[in-house]
Specification:
With 161 residues, this protein is α+β, with helices and mostly antiparallel strands. It folds into 2 domains: 87 residues, no CATH class; 57 residues, no CATH class. 37% of the residues lie in helices and 16% in strands. It has 6 helices and 5 strands. A hairpin with a 6-residue loop joins β4 and β5. The two termini are 13 Å apart.
Length: 161
């Protein structure tokens, strides 16, 4: 969540600086983030309160002056929202493998058993299938069958939100 909050802060802060006519080196802004959890991590409510302007350093850096920025227009809010959405989409989901296999190395490739040292995959079941022991039907059950439909609903909601 820290990466997402950083993206949102940087996007809004950049918008405020540009609208005020300053750069990152000459103007600073700030925000406070409030994170509320109602009933656990599933019902997450995030509030970010931003200054409605920027602080500019004086020439001798002895004090900072606050400069108000006009409220954003509807088009500016839409553009800012689209920018944040595009950047947040690049952040990987937590607890997801960051190594992905494609082509002959893909988990369901029919060539994977032929080209990998472990000889595992959905490919031709020659030597690889003979070396693996037969599994009993009880071992391969999904965890969802063991824990019930409530856990499945929570898992689906957190995974696909």
């Amino acid at each position: 969540m820290g990466k997402v909050l950083s993206i949102v802060y940087r996007a809004v802060a950049t918008h405020l600086r540009r609208k005020a006519g300053y750069t990152k080196a000459t103007a600073q802004t700030g925000a406070i983030t409030l994170i509320q959890r109602f009933g656990g991590a599933v019902n997450l409510n995030i509030h970010m309160l931003f200054l409605d302007g920027v602080y500019i350093d004086s020439a001798d850096r002895s004090r900072a002056r606050f400069r108000w920025v006009k409220a954003p227009t509807s088009n500016e809010l839409t553009q800012l929202t689209h920018t944040i959405a595009r950047l947040v989409a690049l952040v990987p989901k937590p607890r997801v493998h960051l190594t992905r296999y494609h082509g002959v190395f893909a988990p369901h490739s029919k060539y994977r058993a032929l080209v990998t040292p472990a000889k595992r995959g959905n490919g031709k079941k020659g030597i690889a299938a003979q070396q693996q022991p037969e599994r009993s039907p009880g071992i391969n059950r999904s965890w969802a069958l063991n824990y019930g439909p409530d856990c499945v609903a929570i898992w689906l909601k957190t995974r696909y939100e």
